[in-house]
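A common beginner's mistake is to predict each chain separately and then try to dock the pieces by hand. The better habit, illustrated here, is to supply every component at once so that their relative placement is modeled jointly.
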Amino acid sequence: MTPTGSLSELEKQKMYSEAPEIDTFDNPRPNRDYVNSIKVAEFTSVCPKTGLPDFGTISIDYVADQKCLELKSLKYYFLSYRNRGIFYEAVTNQILDDLVATCQPRFMEVTGEFSARGAISSTIVATYRKEGFEFKP
Amino acid sequence: MTPTGSLSELEKQKMYSEAPEIDTFDNPRPNRDYVNSIKVAEFTSVCPKTGLPDFGTISIDYVADQKCLELKSLKYYFLSYRNRGIFYEAVTNQILDDLVATCQPRFMEVTGEFSARGAISSTIVATYRKEGFEFKP
Amino acid sequence: MTPTGSLSELEKQKMYSEAPEIDTFDNPRPNRDYVNSIKVAEFTSVCPKTGLPDFGTISIDYVADQKCLELKSLKYYFLSYRNRGIFYEAVTNQILDDLVATCQPRFMEVTGEFSARGAISSTIVATYRKEGFEFKP
Amino acid sequence: MTPTGSLSELEKQKMYSEAPEIDTFDNPRPNRDYVNSIKVAEFTSVCPKTGLPDFGTISIDYVADQKCLELKSLKYYFLSYRNRGIFYEAVTNQILDDLVATCQPRFMEVTGEFSARGAISSTIVATYRKEGFEFKP
Amino acid sequence: MTPTGSLSELEKQKMYSEAPEIDTFDNPRPNRDYVNSIKVAEFTSVCPKTGLPDFGTISIDYVADQKCLELKSLKYYFLSYRNRGIFYEAVTNQILDDLVATCQPRFMEVTGEFSARGAISSTIVATYRKEGFEFKP
Amino acid sequence: MTPTGSLSELEKQKMYSEAPEIDTFDNPRPNRDYVNSIKVAEFTSVCPKTGLPDFGTISIDYVADQKCLELKSLKYYFLSYRNRGIFYEAVTNQILDDLVATCQPRFMEVTGEFSARGAISSTIVATYRKEGFEFKP
Amino acid sequence: MTPTGSLSELEKQKMYSEAPEIDTFDNPRPNRDYVNSIKVAEFTSVCPKTGLPDFGTISIDYVADQKCLELKSLKYYFLSYRNRGIFYEAVTNQILDDLVATCQPRFMEVTGEFSARGAISSTIVATYRKEGFEFKP
Amino acid sequence: MTPTGSLSELEKQKMYSEAPEIDTFDNPRPNRDYVNSIKVAEFTSVCPKTGLPDFGTISIDYVADQKCLELKSLKYYFLSYRNRGIFYEAVTNQILDDLVATCQPRFMEVTGEFSARGAISSTIVATYRKEGFEFKP
Amino acid sequence: MTPTGSLSELEKQKMYSEAPEIDTFDNPRPNRDYVNSIKVAEFTSVCPKTGLPDFGTISIDYVADQKCLELKSLKYYFLSYRNRGIFYEAVTNQILDDLVATCQPRFMEVTGEFSARGAISSTIVATYRKEGFEFKP
Amino acid sequence: MTPTGSLSELEKQKMYSEAPEIDTFDNPRPNRDYVNSIKVAEFTSVCPKTGLPDFGTISIDYVADQKCLELKSLKYYFLSYRNRGIFYEAVTNQILDDLVATCQPRFMEVTGEFSARGAISSTIVATYRKEGFEFKP
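With all components supplied together, the output reads:
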């Protein structure tokens, strides 16, 4: 098993600190308001104050408009936080802003659940709603 | 134990790729709005991009009008996805469209929960409501 | 341990196929709207199509008016389904009709959760509301 | 370890059948509507029909007005049901009436969850609301 | 949905009270000692004393010799207890005797876990070992 | 629902403080060593020091010799502890002694799991083994 | 491992009884209403009546205005209750008052779940809402 | 998102019915007996009698000798069962035979846990031990 | 509710830092080897290095000889660690030494499970066995 | 909240790729064989083949001889794997080798449980035993 296809040190550094573009694909039912929920179980970033790692789960619930988020490129987007220093409140809101900009949904909610530090754990929930949009399933 | 009653290779190929008709039976209480929930635990289809299998659970919650879905034929309907390539968003909406066409319910919601790929899992919830219908149990 | 008090074969056949009358007792607080929930964990009946047994849990939530359901006679009522052939939708609605007729409640909801057959499980929820009744706890 | 401090047989009989007075203390924030939930895990009384014991959990959720319920005296209040014969519906409503009389809350809900007898379990939920009170947290 | 293929009342009575023969098939690896575990989740029989139904789970762990138990015929074997009166100790040992006679295994253990009656539940574990057999995986 | 069949206050007092005789029945397989496990979920007695109630679960695992324990009379045996003052260590050993005397088993283990008091919970496991008996399933 | 960096007895006494100031930092998205939830798993204080310790979990859910709560200083704030005598109702409301004063949020809810004493457990939920604020995610 | 890299129908048919070769790599600690456990959560094959799909989890526990199993090629090996008809006992033993042949371990145990059919579920455990090998961690 | 019976600050300081004597009582069955398990759910002490609190659960399993541990005095013994600085390894072994000295058991095992710090949690298990003692239940 | 005490980019790179020395402290009971278990919940490294991150839990169970592992330095040791490329089998054995070299225990077992990739998860268990050591608690 020769490690062909390995990443160079440089490629790895880039993958773990620079956010790539996220792909989208055409919503197969643009006329229907339906909910798309994505759960990212192994999110990790770095505390900007201590340099120690943070771990958590990011959940995204959205109602697509014309575009849906493509899952593989989304995975690489989340990998880019691995070596970046960012607080819980900032990272959750940043993800919401980035994903709204990418696919311009009718509605999106991002939830960041971060694991305990000193017996204290945190969850941040940030929401975007396109002006005038009301969910009527 | 002779495997009498076995399917031919051809029958199996057909069963695993072509959707059969779904049977219905008369709603025993057409004058009452009541909820009928069906959970299909072992759904599997194929990712159209990679050819690798997807696994999940499909849930259907509906308020019947004149017709109820017959469970055995429904099982064969779901088997027909086994070797078909289809994305999460498309399969969930397709099931909703097919079942609404079959039994013309007052209300139906289809939920597709798909298992994790690369620590990312997805759930799609699509809903149909007959025009003017409001649930008043 | 002599099996005195045993049922004759005839009594057993009757107990397992004919619904007995359900007793009631006076509601101790008829002036208060309060919720009474009863869970019957070991319900079993027979599939009318295959003759094979079905298993499930029946839950009853009601707001009594003048009468409450007596639990022991209710147990015998549920035993009477053991050897009867009846579909999920029919049995849940039938129980609702029988219990509403027995105690004439202000509100009643019957939930039948039936265990999986071929990885497909079903839940039926049927509801009765006395005309004009609105729950204001 | 001499059993000094033991109760006489008479004191025990009294403790297990006569309801003592329940203490209260001044609500530390009478100007704020906040919810106080108390769960009593080891409630037991006696079925008046069979003389056999009943077991359950009693939950109390209330919004205090001027008085809060003191937990130690509440414990003795619940002990007094140990040898009393009383039905599920009656005991849940009686507890609500007694506690409302004791502390005159703005809102109170008492839930009695009783363990299974013959695979049938019961839950009773009774609620009191001071006239005109509406919860606005 | 015509109920073709339905059982007559007579066939049903027979299916629910007379044990059919259990099929076997050739052990695909008779030279290897391996463990085969079967769990039957919806076992029900009748208490011979009260005529009331008993419910439970039967587990079978065995090391096959020349024959394995065929699951579909095993299902019908268990259905035959539905209307038979038999105690917990007797039914567990009877199943062990019947299955040992059917497939003559090197080792078999039958576990009957019966659900609670009056807050008392029972589990019976009976074991057969072919003379001289010692498990050496 | 007239409470006919109710116990008099005297009968209740007796039932809740004096141990009745426990019935047995003939072991249906006296030639086989098999394990019989009984779990009593709602055991309660009284702390002899404080007069306050104790709650717990009693488990009995035994290998019968000629006699098996009859479950209904066993239930009444356990009810007789309801108003008796006895410590955890004593009650577990007393149950073992009483049940060994009743059915003279080849092996018996009694486990008393008592619920927490002041965040401290206790479990006592006491075992009897007939001289020379070794379990060889 | 020399315990350099240890606290003096005096510093420890102070840390465990006097509430320090809680730090805040600028809300990274003051224009968005988003929910920030903090769970403190190992809260302990002292019962003012008995001197015995109380244990619990404190949860804080808030919508920040200009300031967010800094988690490390919050941890020291909670440590200061370790040796203080305070009742459940008082401690939950006191925490709400202190945190509202610190960060002046748009909305805050504090939940104190306290572990069982004598099988009775308590939960207190107190809420603050800035005048005129309504959550519209 | 053009489906470049998609499999042709032919490649998919092959992938889902013919077992590929499994790769191995050099054991990094051949002098130490250590346990390597692999759990394959989404195994599916076809019942040779009915043509209906079977689902299960395959677990492999082994002590490597000179070679370890490479996980990616192992994944493709398991995919090849998707459209093959094979019984539970045969598939578990076949996997054991194939993997032993591939990496010649000191010890290997394969466990196949198959999901319920008609409320009956099955688990098969087959074991290989190199002659003379005894595990001494 | 006047806080009569409150502890003075001095008594509280003493209770939370000095180990009191532990009471014992006569083993009710000194001739039988039986297991007595005690679980202390709310243990807390102080890290000697940081001054921050540690939390955990202490379990004690022992076979008494002539003396059993009295639970109420044991509770006060554990309270005395609340403000003491001591490492995980030391505290678990110290508890074992103290309890062995108190009741001179035939066997005792003390398990300290300490909650996570920085995602790292610890469990220490220390055991005492009287010379020559072998457990033969 | 100025991020004083932040790590430079260089310090962070070093912390996340170079293993620091692990501290030890004197075993407080070197004459007693007792078990010390440490669970590291948020382990992450990099797959050397794909450059993608791996996640898992590392457990260490050991019997100390003269030295115990200090937990804080152990935490930094585990952080050093964050950006290193290493396979499951290698990392588990490497940790065992490093920790044995650090504290020369009588016994040590390292368990690496790695999360699922493509529905396949892995656990590696490697063990060291000082020559002649046998655990006799």
